[in-house]
Amino acid sequence: MYTQALNTSDGDDRAVEDAARAAEFQARIDQDERIEPNDWMPAAYRKTLTRQISQHAHSEIVGMLPEGNWITRAPSLRRKAALLAKVQDECGHGLYLYAAAETLGTSREELVDAMLAGKAKYSSIFNYPTLTWADIGTIGWLVDGAAIMNQIPLCRCSYGPYARAMIRVCKEESFHQRQGFEIMVTLCRGTAEQKAMAQNALDRWWWPVLMMFGPPDQASQHGDTSTRWKIKRFSNDELRQKFVDATVPQAQFLGLTIPDPGMKQNENGNWEYSPIDWEEFKQVLAGNGPCNRDRLAARRKAHEEGAWVREAAMAYAEKRKSRQLAQAAE
Ligand code: 3HC
Predict the structure, then answer these.
(1) Is 321 inside any structural domain?
(2) What predicted TM-score, i.e. pTM, was given to this entire model?
(3) Choice from 67, 143, 222 to test ligand 1 binding pocket (greatest atom count within 8 A of CB)
């Protein structure tokens, strides 16, 4: 009885201590302090950040696939050079984000293995095909435009390594968005066929891009905690609305029609859009999108074919470490 009582009181003391630390942590967040890797943090904060940052990283790497498909088919050397630079940037974004995720204690290998095993997500938007060159313009214009809308607030995320990674990423995203919009301007000022190709791409990408911001707020399972911990500064619906309001005038400038006949501007100047097909979103997240299988197969193949590079780098690092130890022992 006594031991149990002792354990109980130990247990109570620990619960009181944890509650006090959690309250102190929340006070730091409320004062807009940055949380750094060596700071105490609730396990749930660590877990949700590892989830979000790693999935963000997976998205950057998988996002290279649909665009990489057009590098050899770009219509000019200038377009090819811009697309090459963009795809290379996305790879770098993935590496910054894996590095940020690793500061939370999970290795990059574990994070990548989870994605390859289909246990971790990447953005739904990259499960759609790039059928024409106009898709490359639309991805830069809309997908990177949406990414900027979502990533700018993440520069003020409470977790230091994530926020700092975002600052560099956002600078490069603005080039991505601009080169995409320039492609769309060129096509819309080109032949009737080119303009029709641009409209067709907008028709296919518009709704999947709105889904990219995540489920509606009432269905967002992480939204509340992410907001309370200032990981998210705006809700999914708030960012979606900001994106729509910013993008409709751009489509009007291009002379393109947003594929939503029910869309109308309200008295506040916001563009109200029709209901989103969340069943499609659910299906894509369940692995039943147009390209889910291809994307995962391509990532698994690249990972297998790249094993020798990882092994060689590890062997070199081991050899160098033992040489340094031997020199230190001399
Ligand atoms: N695609 C895939 N999964 C999605 C998703 C999407 N578009 N939107 C939401 N989800 C998932 C969430 O991951 C979560 O599942 P999980 O618990 O298994 O992780 C579930 O749906 C519920 O959604 P929540 O709204 O509760 O989840 P979050 O609070 O994490 O919000 C998010 C979702 C807004 C995407 C948020 O995770 C986020 O801001 N992530 C960082 C930014 C990001 O990943 N951007 C997209 C791709 S990067 C990109 O576009 C690169 C550019 O260079 C092209």
Answers:
(1) yes
(2) 0.94
(3) 222
Please check whether residue 284 lies inside any domain of the structure. no
Q: 5 pLDDT exceeds 60?
A: no
Domain boundary among 234, 253, 277: 277
- Which ligand 1 atom lies nearest to the CA of residue 93? 53
Quote the pLDDT of residue 7: 53
**Domain assignment present for 285:** no
150 contact partners, CB below 8 Å, separation of at least 6: 212, 213, 239
Q: Give the number of domains in the chain.
A: 2
Q: 322 and 228: one domain? A: no
What's the pLDDT tens digit per position in 67-84? 999 999 999 999 999 999
Q: Tell me what pLDDT residue 8 has.
A: 54
